[in-house]
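Q: Given only this backbone (804 positions), what sequence would you predict?
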């Protein structure tokens, strides 16, 4: 049957039977009658044929080829091109509609208007209301042309040639927003001005598209000078300054029309990260970064022929002047407000409200926030009073210049909630801008030793003799003894170069013996020690895992150390000190993340460290200030003293079951640029070498505050089978129980400078390290006192000068 006949048969039969192979057709040609019959039976044959084909067709055969054919027909280049063109037309159409319906706003956004932030104590009472927004617009013509160019060189070199937008950067920003990846750089000066002045900081696709459209329109309708003036007058420069005039006054005490090119380059560099680049508060890293940014700006100006190279080469970095606090921020108010703002900015970034820290800082600085702090009004006043009574009232910089170099900082935290209930940032915010409670540029010294022990216990570490490390493990406390097992040679000296010989870990903590903890750090592994430190709340990101870190040579703040010890107090569950209780404005409500996290070290490890640290206050470097304090009244205390090299810092961080407080004293020169200096000789009340130790003023501040605000006497709930901490040797009310027997050794035993052959905790004298203060009364014998305690501590209580 020919093809024409077959087609006609197929038309008559409706459906074609399953095709036969060509060889069959050739071998047995059909008659017309047979063809007709076959055609009439085609529907049934076709069905059977298809079923047979499905059952019998091998994989990869004609069935698979048919499937591939259908896919190819579905995704032909014509169809794909058509789809792409259709989508493109749709996007262009939508953009045209958006362009036509989005006008340039007639007024500034709400965040660009004058507003105030309100700050409250935890009970809702007023703490502070910040003043007027620090903004004053100036005409661009008043600003030197070269200073104008510093901002263009810093942010957008193509500003004078572009159409006001960066399509690549905007597309990337939209895609990142859709995928929840946050912000990327790339916005032009025009776009930044539009966002700052007309729109909001919210991270939505709608806002980014509006920014694009308004920027295009603004660039067409307004001059470049108009846009640049708006940009430099609306940007946030830090120190509460909006606009170049406020910034010029805040950083250089001059009007904007008197700024030098070098000063303008610094202000332009600031816009990338105002807080991080503020010279007065910047870390060493921040200072390096802002100098690099400053050089980048000037180099770009030379490249664009806006600045002569010889003039640029002659420029030196213009160090800004010290900041001045806004009115109404005297005393501790400014420190609390600044710390609250910094915490809120971090939360805005963490919760995706702001793209980055710069935008977050601008949002907070714009005002309109109602912020409630966790600060307890009663505890805050008590902490301030304690610092004044125990320290600052004794300072007289006219008699002793060193007294003008003493700075104090403290943070008090509830270990069960993470709430920062009190903070002391310095003598007065209007006199000392840097917050001593949050600064991280001083060494925590021996307050780091509990972290080493915590790492050893949590990791189940062993000594070089393969003995598991615990409170009763014996170590060699010889001064300058080289550590064993380290690739880096290290032989630390004990305080006053005292040799202790074989001592337990408990005694080593009580006496703060450097050689013991240097060896323990190597036994555990310094990488593991730093990992534990980070888990407990310290910033260890850039620290090298070297044995010297066992002496606490890294930087830390009282806020950080309070968090570390609060985690120990909270049985190993991480505590992140949190200053803000709630914060909201008309557009956003910010609720802090839960300050209580997961268990970062085991409860047994944390509780064992707590047990060991009770020995420091009951038989160690803090005994005179804490154990013998008449206000203690049997309160359980665990803590550690610390005194850094050259006596540049002195610490006492300690806790009761209900309250953790870190107190730090820092030697900072009163003269710019305020380098670190020694504390030795301050107050003139410390006999001997005059060394300010952690067991002295810091511990006394801690005790006066903590025992003064304690509402009850509480005990630690510890789960540990280790620890040999000496129990309190005084009790004002009940006599000690069988498990709280006082030490049998007198507290004034003769110092030992030779290593003992063998010792047990009960045989060691309580003052193995020499004291540089004479006793002022009868020695404590270790027996419970029978008389009434004095109501006031002596002016110069026994202050162990070896306290580390």
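A: Predicted residues:
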């Amino acid at each position: 049957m020919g093809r024409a006949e077959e087609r006609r048969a197929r038309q008559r039969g409706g459906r074609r039977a399953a095709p036969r192979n060509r060889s069959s057709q050739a071998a047995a040609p059909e008659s017309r009658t047979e063809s007709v019959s076959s055609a009439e039976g085609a529907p049934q044959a076709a069905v059977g044929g298809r079923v047979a084909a499905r059952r019998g067709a091998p994989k990869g055969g004609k069935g698979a080829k048919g499937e591939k054919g259908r896919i190819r027909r579905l995704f032909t280049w014509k169809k794909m091109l058509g789809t792409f063109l259709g989508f493109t037309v749709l996007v262009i159409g939508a953009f045209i509609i958006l362009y036509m319906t989005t006008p340039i706003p007639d007024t500034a956004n709400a965040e660009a208007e004058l507003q105030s932030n309100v700050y409250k104590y935890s009970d809702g009472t007023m703490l502070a209301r910040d003043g007027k927004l620090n903004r004053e617009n100036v005409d661009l013509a008043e600003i030197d042309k070269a200073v104008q160019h510093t901002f263009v060189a810093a942010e957008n070199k193509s500003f004078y040639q572009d159409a006001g937008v960066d399509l690549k950067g905007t597309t990337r920003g939209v895609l990142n927003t859709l995928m929840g990846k946050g912000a990327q750089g790339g916005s032009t000066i025009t776009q930044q001005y539009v966002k700052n002045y007309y729109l909001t900081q919210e991270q939505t696709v709608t806002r980014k598209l509006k920014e694009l459209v308004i920027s295009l329109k603004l660039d067409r309708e307004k001059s470049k000078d108009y846009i640049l003036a708006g940009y430099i007058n609306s940007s946030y420069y830090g120190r509460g300054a909006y606009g170049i005039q406020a910034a010029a006054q805040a950083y250089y005490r001059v009007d904007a029309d008197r700024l030098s090119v070098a000063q303008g380059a610094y202000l332009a560099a600031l816009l990338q990260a105002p807080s991080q680049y503020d010279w007065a508060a910047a870390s060493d890293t921040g200072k390096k970064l802002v100098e690099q940014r400053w050089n980048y700006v000037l180099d770009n100006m030379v490249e664009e022929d806006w600045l002569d190279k010889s003039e640029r080469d002659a420029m030196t970095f213009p160090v800004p002047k010290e900041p001045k606090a806004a009115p109404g921020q005297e005393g501790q108010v400014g420190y609390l407000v600044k710390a609250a703002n910094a915490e809120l900015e971090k939360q805005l970034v963490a919760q995706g409200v702001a793209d980055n820290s710069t935008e977050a800082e601008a949002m907070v600085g714009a005002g309109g926030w109602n912020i409630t702090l966790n600060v307890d009004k009663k505890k805050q006043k008590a902490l301030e009073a304690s610092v004044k009574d125990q320290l600052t009232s004794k300072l007289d910089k006219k008699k002793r210049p060193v007294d003008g170099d003493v700075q104090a900082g403290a943070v008090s935290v509830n270990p069960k909630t993470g709430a920062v209930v009190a903070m002391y940032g310095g003598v007065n915010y209007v006199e000392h801008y840097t917050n001593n409670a949050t600064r991280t540029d001083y060494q925590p010294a021996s307050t780091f030793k509990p972290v080493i022990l915590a790492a050893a216990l949590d990791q189940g570490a062993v000594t070089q003799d393969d003995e598991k490390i615990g409170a009763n493990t014996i170590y060699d406390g010889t001064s300058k003894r080289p550590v064993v097992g380290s690739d880096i040679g290290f032989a630390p000296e004990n305080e006053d170069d005292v040799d202790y010989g074989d001592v337990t870990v408990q005694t080593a903590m009580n006496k703060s013996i450097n050689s013991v903890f240097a060896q323990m750090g190597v036994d555990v592994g310094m990488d593991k020690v730093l990992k534990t430190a980070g888990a407990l709340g310290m910033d260890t990101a850039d620290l090298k895992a070297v044995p010297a870190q066992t002496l606490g040579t890294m930087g830390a703040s009282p806020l950080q150390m309070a968090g570390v010890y609060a985690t120990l107090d909270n049985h190993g569950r991480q505590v992140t000190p949190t200053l803000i209780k709630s914060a909201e404005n008309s557009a956003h409500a910010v609720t802090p993340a839960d300050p209580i996290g997961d268990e970062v070290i085991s409860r047994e490890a944390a509780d064992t460290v707590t047990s060991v640290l009770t020995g420091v206050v009951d038989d160690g470097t803090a005994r005179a200030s804490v154990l013998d304090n008449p206000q203690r009244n049997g309160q359980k205390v665990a803590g550690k003293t610390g005194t850094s090299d050259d006596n540049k810092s002195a610490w006492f961080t300690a806790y009761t079951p209900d309250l953790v407080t870190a107190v730090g004293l820092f030697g900072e020169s009163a003269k710019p640029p305020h380098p670190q200096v020694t504390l030795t000789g301050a107050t003139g009340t410390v006999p001997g070498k005059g060394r300010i130790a952690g067991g002295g003023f810091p511990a006394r501040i801690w005790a006066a505050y903590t025992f003064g605000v304690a509402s009850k006497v509480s005990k630690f709930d510890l789960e540990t089978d280790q620890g040999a901490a000496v129990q309190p040797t005084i009790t004002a009310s009940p006599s000690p129980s069988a498990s709280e027997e006082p030490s049998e050794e007198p507290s004034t035993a003769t110092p030992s400078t030779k290593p003992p052959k063998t010792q047990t905790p009960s045989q060691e004298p309580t003052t193995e390290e020499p004291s540089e203060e004479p006793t002022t009364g009868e020695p404590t014998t270790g027996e419970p006192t029978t008389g009434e305690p004095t109501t006031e501590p002596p002016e110069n209580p026994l202050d162990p000068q070896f306290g580390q």
